[in-house]
C-alpha cells in the first residue's frame, strides 16, 4: 500500500513537471508569435484538454485572444490571435465549420447577402405579398393591439424597486458566506478522509 502511494506520488510529480515544461514551451512560442510582425494569428497542433487550458491561460496572460476549434477530443486545437486582429463572428464560424478563413470570400458572401436583401425589399415594394400567414405575430394581432401599444406600454412601465430584495425574516440561512464556505470545505475534507 505504501509502495502504491509512493508510485502515485512519483507519477503526480512527473505530471506536474511535464505541465510546467509544457507551459514554459508555450510561453516561448507565444512570445515568438507576439514578436512576429507579419503573423496576425497562429494555429497550434491538436492537444489534450489540459494542454489547451494551459495555452489559453498563457495567451490570456500575454494579452492575446484564443479559441479552441475541432469536433472530437483528438483533433481539437487552439488558435491564438493578436488583439488588433481579433476574429469576427464570421471568421470564428468558418473555423468552427473546419474551413480556412478567406476574407475575400467572406466579403463576397456578405455582398451576395446584401444583394438578396435588396432584391427581397424591391419585391415587397413592387407588389402585394402572396396570401399566407403573416411573418410577425404583431401583424397577425394588429387589429387587437394596434401599432403603438407596445411602445406606449414600454414608456409607462416602471421598475419594481423591491424586486430581488428578500426581507431578513424570510431568510432561512443566516450564516455569512465565509461561514457557509468553511462548512462546505470541512464537509469536503471529511469526505476525502473517508474515501482514503
TrEMBL record:
Residue ranges of domain R3H in the record: 20-83
GO molecular function: nucleic acid binding
Annotated Basic and acidic residues bias: 93-116
SMART domains: R3H
Gene3D superfamilies: R3H-like domain
Sequence segments annotated as region (Disordered): 90-140
Stored Pfam families: R3H
Domain of life (superkingdom): Eukaryota
PANTHER family, sorted: SPERM ASSOCIATED ANTIGEN 7, SPERM-ASSOCIATED ANTIGEN 7
Protein name: SPAG7 protein
Organism: Panurus biarmicus (Bearded tit)
Gene that this polypeptide is encoded by: Spag7
